[in-house]
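TASK: fixed-backbone design
INPUT:
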């Protein structure tokens, strides 16, 4: 005989919308505490939930929340991430400027990116809403949604901040990194350049995801000159600005720094999140993997900035990252072979650590 909880799960498929609403609302806590109840009868409740994302927005809100939490289960994750019809539905919803659950859908997509096969799904094509001004490639639509939708400017119900976690996980894959570095015909813009302006955004989620995305793309050594060229991607100022505070530097050091780092306001503060600082320092470490990169970082006086960061940030991981970078920048180059050293320098996994945990398999929960 089914338990009361199993009976409640069965009510999510009830023809009466009021019963579906009550059932899904009351089941949200159990999607984290007892997720196994959704896997009974060959995961039929999960199959029902995938259909109910098209239900009334209030019901869909609870349904999407449940699916976000259930995606921590690898079996459910694969079921969601490989269901083309389900993905087409939620991708169509998220780009609708009037979708009330767009932020929850952003979180769900970010979790689905934990499934490696998801990378191919985002290269699929769907019609883009006229308001978005994008092309028919889903990945470009999500990038434009992230940029144009910040702070409710595209959809007053959503900021799309969690799409930054999606990009961070997707850029674990070389083919996605290459896409982020290729100028797109529809707008003539390199996708990565759209993200750099958010490294000092007020949203912790947005800053963290963007920082990790930039770091992951920096594993493409061939792109390093573009990272550091003021006439190309010009990412160095956006990587360093979150690291720098209001400390004063010697005049000769200050004048050699990048123009955007000079004459900063007296209330300039470095990022409040040590994990984000660490990520940016690790990106600089990746950029130091060639002789040309190290010379450029020395030329623009990255060392004194890292020196001050090391002395003013108490986090041990930040200090360790700073020490590794200082050791690279201050060492004698004589007799050293130049060329890529990514394998030596970056031993850690490139995946974004969601929240404050270094486990790249962690799932966003609601």
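OUTPUT:
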């Amino acid at each position: 005989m089914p338990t009361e909880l199993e009976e409640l799960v069965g009510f999510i498929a009830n023809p009466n919308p009021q019963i579906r609403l009550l059932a899904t609302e009351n089941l949200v806590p159990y999607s984290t505490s007892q997720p196994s109840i959704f896997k009974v009868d060959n995961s039929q409740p999960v199959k029902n939930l995938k259909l109910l994302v098209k239900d009334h927005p209030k019901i869909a809100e609870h349904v999407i929340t449940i699916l976000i939490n259930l995606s921590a289960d690898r079996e459910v994750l694969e079921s969601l991430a490989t269901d083309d019809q389900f993905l087409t539905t939620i991708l169509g919803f998220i780009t609708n400027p009037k979708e009330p659950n767009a932020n929850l859908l952003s979180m769900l997509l970010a979790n689905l990116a934990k499934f490696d096969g998801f990378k191919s799904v985002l290269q699929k094509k769907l019609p883009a809403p006229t308001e978005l001004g994008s092309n028919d490639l889903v990945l470009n639509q999500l990038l434009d949604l992230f940029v144009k939708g910040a702070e409710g400017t595209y959809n007053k119900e959503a900021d799309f901040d969690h799409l930054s976690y999606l990009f961070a996980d997707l850029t674990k894959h070389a083919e996605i990194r290459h896409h982020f570095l290729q100028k797109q015909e529809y707008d003539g813009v390199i996708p990565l350049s759209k993200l750099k302006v958010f490294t000092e955004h007020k949203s912790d989620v947005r800053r963290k995801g963007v920082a990790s995305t930039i770091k992951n793309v920096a594993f493409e050594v061939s792109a390093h000159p573009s990272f550091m060229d003021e006439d190309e991607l010009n990412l160095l100022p956006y990587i360093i600005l979150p690291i720098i505070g209001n400390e004063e530097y010697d005049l000769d050091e200050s004048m050699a720094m990048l123009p955007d780092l000079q004459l900063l306001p007296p209330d300039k503060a470095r990022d409040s999140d040590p994990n984000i600082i660490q990520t940016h320092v690790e990106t600089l470490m990746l950029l130091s993997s060639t002789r040309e990169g190290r010379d450029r970082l020395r030329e623009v006086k990255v060392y004194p900035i890292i020196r001050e960061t090391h002395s003013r940030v108490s986090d041990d991981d930040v200090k360790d990252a700073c020490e590794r970078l200082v050791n690279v920048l201050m060492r004698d180059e004589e007799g050293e072979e130049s060329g890529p050293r990514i394998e030596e320098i970056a031993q850690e996994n490139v995946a974004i650590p969601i929240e404050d945990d270094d486990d790249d398999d962690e799932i966003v929960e609601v």
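COMMENT: The chain is about 55% helix and 0% strand.
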